Amino acid sequence: MSTETDYKVAQSGEDAFTIVKTLLDAPDAFVSGSILGEKLGISRPAIHGKLEKLREHGFEIEAVRNRGYRLGKEPEVLHPALLRYYLAVAGVAIETLYFPVIDSTNSEAERQITYGRKSPFAIASSCQTQGRGRLGREWYSASADNLYLSVLFEPNIPPQQLQHFTLWAGITICRALQRFTPTAKLQIKWPNDLHCDGRKFAGMLTEAKMDADSMRSIIFGIGINLNSNPSKFPKDLRNSATSLYAITGQEVPINKVAADVLHAVNEAYEACIHNQTIESLPAAWAPLNSLNGKSVTVLQGAEEISGIANGIDESGALLLSQANGSTIAVRAGDVTMKK
Ligand code: BTN
Q1: Is the beta carbon of 221 within 6 A of some atom in ligand 1?
Q2: Index of the ligand 1 atom closest to the CA of residue 133
Q3: Which amino acid residue places its CA nearest to atom 16 of ligand 1?
Q4: 170: Cβ below 6 Å to ligand 1?
Q5: Which residues, in sequence order, are CB contacts of 303 under 8 Å at separation 6+?
Q6: CATH of the domain at 119
Q7: Residue 122 alpha carbon to ligand 1 centre in Å
Q8: For residue 137, what pLDDT is reported?
Q9: CB-CB contact of 244 with 227 (8 Å)
Q10: Which of 85, 173, 190, 281 is buried most, with the most CB atoms less than 10 Å from its CB?
Q11: Which ligand 1 atom is nearest residue 202's CA?
Q12: What is the structure's pLDDT at 1?
């Protein structure tokens, strides 16, 4: 859990950001020490110290006499300066706070509002100690190789306008992540899971606060198994969970993924509040639907509804075809596939 002042620590140091941006803006080229010194307004020996600090955080920075510095490899962990760089590249104007460890990014978003932070803002972390899942479940978040993000918006509009927000966010995020896994098809399992080959690699949890007729705040949280090895997950998850690393066979760039996911969340939010979703929800969902044609059971409390999953309707309900030719529209629940 953070204190009211912790967020200052969570923000990227200005000098680290300037160095990272200058090096990344000159891919494959050397940047001279005097250019860096000028940008930072510090002496060359002082630059050396700052570069050392970045190296300690996993940046590989080459130094060649008379030529300067060149960025080799980026760190494989979240880094506030890199995250800020990629957010700018992706055109995301959402202030993003980074916490190396946090209880839950959703809980931290809630706390930041009570500290007076202006929305929208995002919380990013690679390790949660009390990650929350849907239906009061725990979300396994111990691995430092995964990504946990929450975005808080204060829409102050009638809640109906955002009733499909999580479904749209699933669509825009699935499309964004697909760019990192060109050879594997990513899909959505209704309503809030991202899957690949029948295994879950991400889950979404949206929590909202309402006034009489208005949605006061909405916190969208997503946990993505990114560069973790599923064979190291707790036993009960090993057969059902996967990660983008396991899917692609290589590390995915976590800071860039985080920026692209935040862009996707914002895109879905903006489209919903301005009522500007250009496609119809069922049409956008169809090519990503992992349940299409599958025989499923939906658990709604003590009630079970079975049928053949057949897409979703305009209201976001899952359509289940019945043996007698009728269709049942299911609005909420937990879906399991029949063996
Ligand atoms: C689910 O599939 O049950 C939803 C999981 C949502 C997990 C994310 S991780 C980031 C954010 N913080 C949390 O505590 N939960 C969500």
Answers
A1: yes
A2: 3
A3: 221
A4: no
A5: none
A6: 3.30.930.10
A7: 14
A8: 93
A9: yes
A10: 173
A11: 2
A12: 55
Range of the domain at 332: 291-337
> In angstroms, what is the span from residue 150 Cα to ligand 1's centroid?
9
Low-confidence residues in the chain, pLDDT < 70: 1-12, 339
| pLDDT at residue number 143 | 75
Q: Residue 8: its pLDDT value, please?
A: 38
Encoding tokens for residue 249?
A: 């066979």
Give the whole-angstrom CA distance, residue 221 versus residue 104: 9
pTM: predicted TM-score of the whole model, two decimal places: 0.94
Contact 150 CB / ligand 1 (< 6 Å): yes
Residue 172 · residue 141 · CB < 8 Å: no
Cα of 106 from ligand 1 centre, angstroms: 8
Assess whether 65 and 87 both reside in one domain.
no
Quote the CA–CA distance of 159 and 29 in Å, as a whole number.
Answer: 50
Q: CATH number, domain at 318? A: 2.30.30.100
Helices (H) then strands (E): counts for the chain:
11, 14
Cβ(177)–Cβ(257) below 8 Å: yes
Q: Is the CB of 110 under 6 A from ligand 1?
A: no
Q: How many domains does the chain divide into?
A: 3
Q: Which atom of ligand 1 is nearest to the CA of 128?
A: 14
